[in-house]
Amino acid sequence: MPTSTRFVVSLHMLALMAEHGDTPLRSEDIAVSVNSNAAVVRALLLRLAAAGLTRSQLGNRGGAMLAKSSADIRLVEVYQAVEDRNFFAFHRQPPDGEGMIDRHITASLETMLTPVREALEDKLAGLTLDDVLDDIRERAGVLSDQAQIGRAAIGEQRRQAAG
């Protein structure tokens, strides 16, 4: 059964744009990083732009950039922009039998599975692109400016306490 990678690839793309700040990224360059082709990247960029998450700069040095701060991009926005919100696909052809299962399976499963999708979206609503970037930087051993300031303040407090 095929699964979609649109959400994860879109997060990768947005993280790249966040890391490059105000420098526009060409779809060809993004495609190399996400190991896909530029047409797939452009299709995702269209969805992300329609959701107000990215914007494009035209011209010789044009490309895609974040439309708002990475701290203001909630993962649920990305998910809803690029994925089919019907997390669980139902029968391609609705059951048409007369039996109890045939008549009620879809309604029953929708009732049970809708809260699962909602729980996923609730969890994603509590996370931002900054959370993704912070985790990436921590794994890479790179501290964000805010983390460096925080560590410097802690070091100063320790020096004062010891001094």
Report on the structure:
- The protein is mainly alpha-helical and 163 residues long.
- 61% of the residues lie in helices and 5% in strands.
- The chain has seven helices and two strands, in the order αααββαααα.
- Strand 1 and strand 2 form a beta hairpin.
- The longest helix has 26 residues.
- Proportion of strand residues: under 5%
Low-confidence stretches: none
Report, as a whole number of angstroms, the end-to-end distance: 64 Å
Encode the helix/strand succession as letters: HHHEEHHHH
**Shape annotation:** extended
**Arrangement of strands in the largest sheet:** 1-2
Number of strands: 2
**Mean pLDDT, rounded to whole units?**
88
Tally of helical segments: 7
